[in-house]
Amino acid sequence: MKVALVAFSGKGAMGQYAAGLATALAGLARVTLFAPNHFRADTLGAAVARRFFASGRTKARALVRFLNPVAGRALAGEIAADPMWCTS
Which helix (H) or strand (E) holds 80? Predict the structure, then answer.
């Protein structure tokens, strides 16, 4: 099984939760975590593939970016183009 986990927030408890979930799932499936570029990658297990995307430095800028349909489409295209999804 393959799992794409998308975390739109990587700060505080949300980042810890996403890292814990991705690491736990990696024991059961092939996991790729898509997270903002400020996400602390050192909290992830070694089996988790990591892909980072740009987001705003403040909550307001991040919200504007994520509400932008062009940015959303670009992120969806990046997920679809990930090599993990092209193999069985």
Answer: helix 69-81
**pLDDT tens-digit profile of 57-69?**
777 877 787 788 8
Q: Which two tokens stand for residue 71?
A: 């940015």
Gap between the Cα atoms of 41 and 45, Å rounded: 9
Reduced 3-state DSSP string for 23-39? HHHCCCCEEEEEEECCC
Distance of CA 76 to the CA centre of its chain: 11
For CA atoms 9, 10, 11, 13, the dihedral sign is positive
Three-state secondary structure of 45-76: CCCCEEEEECCCCCHHHHHHHHHCHHHHHHHH
Q: What is the pLDDT of residues 2-17, one digit of tens each?
A: 888 888 877 778 888 9
Task: Enumerate the β-bridge partners of residue 6.
Answer: 34
At 8 the three-state DSSP class reads coil
